[in-house]
Specification:
- Pfam families: BRO1, Lactamase_B_3.
- This is BRO1 domain-containing protein BROX.
- InterPro entries: BRO1_dom, BRO1_sf, RibonucZ/Hydroxyglut_hydro.
- It comes from Pyrus ussuriensis x Pyrus communis.
- The longest helix is centred in the middle third of the chain and has 29 residues.
- The protein is built from 18 helices and 15 strands.
- The strands form 4 sheets. The protein has a 7-stranded mixed β-sheet, with no helix packed on it. It has a 3-stranded parallel β-sheet with strand order 3-4-5, with no helix packed on it. It has a 3-stranded antiparallel β-sheet with strand order 12-11-14.
- It has 3 domains: about 160 residues, alix/aip1 like domains (Serine Threonine Protein Phosphatase 5, Tetratricopeptide repeat, Alpha Horseshoe), CATH 1.25.40; about 120 residues; about 190 residues, Metallo-beta-lactamase, Chain A, CATH 3.60.15.
- Helices cover about 50% and strands about 10% of the residues.
Length: about 525
């Protein structure tokens, strides 16, 4: 399997390069003749016809090089996912990393590749070249990665409260995937096996999430509510049993275990605690909010050492916004469920973003400017002042040949003061060497997986500060995690803010490190010649 992945990683850039050159000379007579004689055929593993065709595999023929690219990329993502499953028993960290890499490939396919093929798709086509199907696969792979994270968390003895939240996160990912599959008209030819897989996995994680949530309620002396949670969940799952027999047997076993747990809780409540069990009507809203809300999870008996020190902000807490800068296209930087209510509150909000996020943002905001690295745009603030925003090259997510994500230089009029922001401390030295920034917002603590750097920092952040001749460095705290928490057991941190200060003082002795408090504005003194 590793050799197949290697071969695909060699083939895909060559194919993309060929498509680029063919597009440039597409009016050339020989090229027109050559492309007109192309015959590209693929079978589909996702098509419903694949499972009911008794005379053999059905071939889909679309004589377009981009069809070849789409199908090959889909195969590449699927094989990465298979590889993640293969290494799962031996290496949980590598497995989770591969699942996320597969999610990035499918995300790239859905938003950057398939849309360019749409004009050539006349007649029947396989599900693999449907954007919404690749979006569903991306969500499934993210759920897979989080399931591996949960497995590692259990090994490390993570609290039941955080386990409930993690399982519920998978439920939300799969719920979103099921919604896309159900509503997208072009997904109708997708095999029912995909829908069965999503709904069955969702049920399994729903049972686990509510089981752990009931445990947190018990620990906070809410035994009656814990019983109600278990009853409500069991009733809900029984109403939505999967159709396929293989999944039925798996779900039935989990339901039997869950029923036994409920029976024990009911017996204990009846003879020991004598608490009133709330009805489903009074319980339903409370169950969901207690599992998914950062504020409520902290206030529902979750320990302060559960892994995150959260500051919970409502939209009403956010001051008036002049512009929203989006650096990356994946969920941790461009989160649909956060941006949707923000777009309703500020429908005309100015947004500057990476083109990689176009598919998501176009449906939410009407005033979006997409900047490639090196491009710039002017923002006019509510008080009449203006600043220039210039995009810089950030990390590459998904396939190595994909467009990089963004960092930004925010430049005060006439270049009197400049701020630089990029959330992974990944930058292109040659493109920044002629730039200067008074203020840098960057991670300073590295976050590492074996053989892979998730977030750079320490000496990388010092080199960045020296490169831009920074006067102020504002450290991001995405590496500053409680050592007893889940993420500290999965991701190793390298360095501290203090060790960064020591490194910085040797290279830029006059630079200041300003540590922000989440939710509290940080005032930075501007040079005296600025208003």
């Amino acid at each position: 399997m590793s050799q197949v992945l290697h071969n695909l990683e060699l083939y895909l850039p060559l194919l993309e390069n060929l498509i680029l050159h063919v597009d440039r000379v597409k009016s050339h007579r020989q090229i027109v003749r050559w492309t007109s004689e192309l015959k590209i055929q693929w079978t589909s593993a996702l098509s419903s016809s694949f499972f009911f065709n008794l005379i053999g595999s059905k071939y889909f023929q679309i004589n377009n090089l981009r069809f070849e690219l789409c199908m090959t990329l889909f195969l590449y993502g699927a094989i990465i996912r298979e590889r993640a499953l293969e290494v799962l028993p031996a290496d949980l960290v590598q497995s989770a990393t591969l699942f996320r890499e597969a999610a990035g490939v499918f995300h790239h396919l859905a938003h950057q590749v398939i849309p360019f093929l749409q004009h050539s798709l006349i007649g029947e086509r396989p599900p693999e070249v449907v954007s919404s199907v690749s979006a569903v696969m991306s969500l499934i792979c993210l759920g897979d990665a989080q399931a591996v994270t949960i497995k590692r968390a259990k090994e490390k003895g993570t609290t039941v409260g955080l386990l409930a939240k993690l399982h519920h996160g998978i439920v939300e990912l799969l719920d979103e995937a099921a919604g896309v599959l159900h509503t997208a008209r072009e997904c109708k030819d997708t095999s029912l096996d995909v829908a069965d897989f999503i709904s069955s996995c969702k049920m399994l994680h729903e049972l686990q999430a509510q089981k752990y949530f009931a445990e947190t309620l018990k620990s906070s002396n809410q035994f009656g509510v814990a019983v109600a949670v278990l009853r409500f969940t069991l009733t809900n799952v029984k109403k939505n049993m999967p159709g396929k027999e293989s999944w039925k047997s798996v779900i039935k076993e989990e339901i039997d275990n869950f029923s036994e747990l409920l029976r024990k809780h009911e017996h204990e409540n009846e003879f020991v605690w004598h608490e009133k069990v709330p009805s489903e009507e009074t319980l339903s809203g409370r169950v969901v909010s207690a599992v998914v809300s950062a504020e409520n999870t902290v206030q529902s008996g979750f320990s302060g050492t559960d892994g995150f020190k959260l500051t919970y902000l409502e939209l009403s807490d956010i001051p008036e916004v002049d512009c929203l800068l989006i650096t990356q296209s994946l969920d941790d930087h461009c989160h649909l469920k956060t941006l949707k209510p923000l777009s309703k509150k500020y429908p005309n909000l100015r947004v500057i973003a990476t083109p990689n996020a176009k598919a998501l943002l176009d449906s939410l905001f009407s005033n979006v400017t997409y900047l490639e690295p090196g491009q710039s745009s002017i923002i006019e603030a509510g008080n009449g002042s203006t600043v220039k925003v210039q995009a810089t090259a950030g990390p590459v997510l998904g396939p190595p040949w994909q467009r990089p994500e963004n960092g930004y230089l925010v430049i005060y009029p006439e270049g009197k003061s400049t701020l630089y922001y990029e959330p992974h401390c990944v930058y292109n030295t040659s493109s920044l060497e002629k730039e200067r920034a008074d203020i840098i917002i960057t991670p300073v603590i590295k976050q590492l997986l074996p053989k892979f750097t998730l977030v750079s920092g320490q000496e990388d952040a010092v080199r960045l500060a020296k490169l831009l001749n920074a006067k102020f460095i504002v450290p991001m705290t995405n590496g500053d995690l409680d050592a007893k928490g889940l993420l500290a057991s999965l991701v190793s941190a390298e360095g501290t803010i203090e060790s960064f200060k020591d490194l910085l003082s040797k290279e830029l002795p006059d630079a200041q490190v300003l540590q922000p408090t989440p939710g509290v504005p940080l005032e930075i003194p501007l040079p005296p010649n600025l208003p």
